[in-house]
Amino acid sequence: MKMVDIKAWAEYVVDWAAKDPYGFLTTVILAVTPLFLVNAIVSQKMVKMIEAREKDQKKEQKCQENIAKAK
């Protein structure tokens, strides 16, 4: 099993960023953009789930209050 030389890789990245900053930034932005999109989609789904849970909890609480009033 071959070990990854992190120091050499880091030096390569720093050298690349120094020689071609626009190309480096473009590559980084293109690599990170899909992650932001996935994050936005997952966050939206989570918000909807939380809102649905809160709505169910309020409904259940209202029902319990009505039962307590009826007694």
From TrEMBL:
A Pfam family annotated for this UniProt entry: UPF0542
A GO-annotated cellular component: membrane
Major subcellular site: membrane
Domain of life: Eukaryota
Keyword Transmembrane helix recorded: yes
UniProt keywords, alphabetically: Coiled coil, Membrane, Transmembrane, Transmembrane helix
Membrane topology: Single-pass membrane protein
Record localization: Membrane
TM spans (from-to): 22-42
Family matches, as PANTHER family: SMALL INTEGRAL MEMBRANE PROTEIN 15 (PTHR28644)
Family the UniProt entry places it in: Belongs to the SMIM15 family.
Protein's name in the database: Small integral membrane protein 15
Source organism (scientific name): Panthera pardus
